[in-house]
Amino acid sequence: MQADVVTTRMSVLTRVLPMRILVVGDDEPQLGPMAVRLAAAGFEVERADSGEQALAMLDERWRPVVIADWHMPAMDGIAFTEELRARGVEDTYVIVLTAQESDSDHERGYLAGVDDYLTKQMPDAELFARIHAGFNTLALRRSLQETRAELTHVNREDVESGAASVTETLKRLQSEVRRAQRYGRMLSVLTIGVRAESASVVDESTVAAPALRAVVTTLQSVVRTHVDWVGRIPSLTGGAAFVCVLPEAATPDGPPIKERVRKALAEIPASRIAGQAIAFDFGLAGLERGGHDGKPVEAVALIDVAERCRGCQGHDGPAQLGAVQRSVAIGVTIACRHGYAVVSQCSFKSAPQLS
């Protein structure tokens, strides 16, 4: 294969990857001419006399492809590859040069992270083809990594509302709970139910996406920036449900926080909620400072108690009793719990509700 043909075939990849190749080894009679041929094919070729020197060069500058001689003093090609991978360098394609096809320790090299093998006497046509395959493979790896990263980012955000997705919410909240329990810190969760009441909506549980985004944007504007955050949670009562996670907020802080949130939601312009009449209800549960007794609390259980609180009417009855019993069982607090007693009127729900 001619050098100009190789250059043409690599033109697309050139726009993605720098065409740098690092050749490692002190076998000048073999590696010198190879480096010259690669340079003539349009590659930017650099040389290192040893594995140690190559590692130092790679620390300073990334090279997509490395061709390393198997037999080098102090650090052979396999040991060099092992050290490179141990440093976390996975986006470099490593080719090891062997003296002949009969080298039998290829399996050890593959386990160390070697991507391919070449013999020093390989014809130019095969040499260029294998180099091309290396760049192509590396470009594919990067494309897959970027795709996975994009999918991960998409999965972290709820498409309809812009809040953290249900999966991301539970994951992040679990971390918040663990941190609060480990250091004896306070943590509260305020759940917000959103339901549509417009007669024009066939299914009254359906809330339009623009309305959900308006709700989430409003919630994010009310809570503390870079401290509190908003996520979506499953709603078992129809409509949609969200949670405001409030680190360092105690349960008695819940009623005034809820009232501030309620007022902000009531002021959302009709144009931002697609003309729907929407209503809200609220629930609260929390961890108190030093009150965990080492008993692990799961994020889903904390949400469950807050949602039981949301379903309560705020006075004596089965719903309030069930919420208190569940909160006692898992070791969290709700606004109406005074010790183990159920008060006749919940302070959390005593403020006027949004009509």
Mean pLDDT: 82
Strand content: 15-25%
Second rung of CATH, namely the architecture of the largest domain = 2-Layer Sandwich
The CATH topology of the largest domain comes to Alpha-Beta Plaits
Which ranges are low-confidence, i.e. pLDDT below 50, for 5 or more consecutive residues? Answer: 1-15, 199-204
State the share of residues found in helices, binned by percent.
Answer: 40-55%
What gross morphology would you assign?
A: elongated
Q: What is the number of independent domains?
A: 2
Biggest sheet strand order reads 2-1-3-4-5
Task: Report on the architecture of this protein.
The structure is a single chain. With 355 residues, this protein is of the alpha/beta class. It has two domains: 3-155, Response regulator (Rossmann fold); 166-349, 2-Layer Sandwich (Alpha-Beta Plaits). The protein is 44% helix and 17% strand. The chain is built from twelve helices and eleven strands. A five-stranded parallel β-sheet has the order 2-1-3-4-5, sandwiched between helices. Strands 7-8-6-9 form a four-stranded antiparallel β-sheet, with helices on both faces. β3 (65-69), α5 (77-86) and β4 (93-98) form a beta-alpha-beta unit. α9 (209-222) packs across α10 and α11 (299-311) packs antiparallel against α12 (318-330).
Task: Briefly summarize what is shown.
By secondary structure, the protein is of the alpha/beta class. It is 44% helix and 17% strand.
